[in-house]
Design a protein that fits this description.
UDP-galactose 4-epimerase, domain 1; Rossmann fold; about 300 residues; 7-stranded parallel beta sheet; about 40% helix; alpha/beta; single chain; 3-stranded mixed beta sheet; globular
């Protein structure tokens, strides 16, 4: 029998890549999002529905139309400055979605949490760290933390088969030009001088194909339920080094370091311990950063 999955946020960067992989494997793929897919992200035979998942009645009417084996939630309001909408889409939306499927028999519910749930905890972050909600500085990190707690409680009370993933910085083809790597690539390709921060921040960068392969392995492993995983490459890297690497590969553009000040709530060091992931998905080969950047640059060059 064909496997079926609902991808909430299926028209976004991450959701699109997962839908593309699963369609190639002949899965039934349903997508719910607030926006229609960009032309280059529309996938043949994916069934698209449009709804804000924080609107419970409308969401339930859509969910009643089909049955699925798996659910993955990438949904969320992008502009985190709007506190009310951020908590509504990330927390209330998750509650509506999970509460609906608590009543159904599904194999697994995958929640895309956030590395920011670790708040002020020092890196490398471990999944079993104690998180204090009053240490979370943004409505986004708080709403993701509340969502995780809701699922953990549902796991205890209803044996709900959740898995929570906390990704770090994912990059690759088809990403919007509103994240660090595509912004730098775009500026370099256009041979601009452009401002950046000092670049002293240390982050973990993971290539999109690696992320999707990890997600697929965690979805299809029957033994993985009621667990939390950090998702990253396990290699902390200075942002400045990534900017310089892109600049050197493209041979155009000029980053001007130190112009953009760090946000007050921005941590200089933010990266995961991924031992739990590595012990679960053994012998996984991560794409080296240099190769991932080559593939990403090639995509944006072709797009121009």
């Amino acid at each position: 029998m064909k496997k079926s999955i609902l991808i909430c946020g299926g028209t976004g960067f991450l959701g699109f890549h997962l839908a593309k992989k699963l369609k190639k494997l002949n899965w039934n793929v349903f997508s719910i999002s607030t926006n229609k897919p960009l032309k280059e992200r529309k996938i043949k035979n994916v069934k698209y529905y449009y709804c804000d998942i924080s609107k419970k009645k409308k969401l339930n009417l859509i969910l009643d139309k089909f049955q699925v084996d798996f659910v993955i939630n990438f949904s969320g309001y992008v502009d985190h400055l709007n506190k009310k909408k951020t908590i509504s889409s990330h927390y209330l939306g998750l509650k509506n979605l999970s509460n609906y499927y608590i009543q159904k028999k599904i194999f697994k519910f995958i929640q895309i949490g956030s590395s920011l749930e670790y708040g002020q905890n020092n890196p490398p972050h471990k999944e079993n760290m104690i998180i204090k909600s009053n240490h979370l500085k943004s409505s986004y990190s708080l709403s993701k933390f509340l969502s995780s707690n809701h699922l953990i409680n549902a796991g205890v009370k209803y044996d709900f088969p959740y898995v929570i993933l906390r990704p770090y910085l994912i990059y690759g083809p088809y990403q919007e030009i509103n994240r660090i790597i595509p912004i730098v690539i775009d500026n370099c390709l256009q041979d601009r001088s452009f401002p950046t921060s000092s670049g002293d921040q240390i982050r973990d960068f993971l290539y999109i194909n690696d992320f999707i392969e990890i997600v697929y392995k965690l979805i299809t492993n029957k033994n993985i339920k009621k667990k939390i995983f950090n998702i990253g490459s396990g290699i902390p890297t200075k942002v400045r080094d990534v900017v310089k690497m892109i600049n050197k590969k493209i041979r155009k553009g000029k980053p001007i370091f130190g112009v953009i000040k760090l946000r007050k709530d921005e941590s200089k060091m933010y990266y995961p311990n991924i031992q739990k992931l590595k012990s679960t998905i053994k012998h996984f080969k991560f794409t080296p950063l240099s190769l991932g950047l080559d593939k990403t640059i090639k995509y944006y060059e072709k797009k121009r």
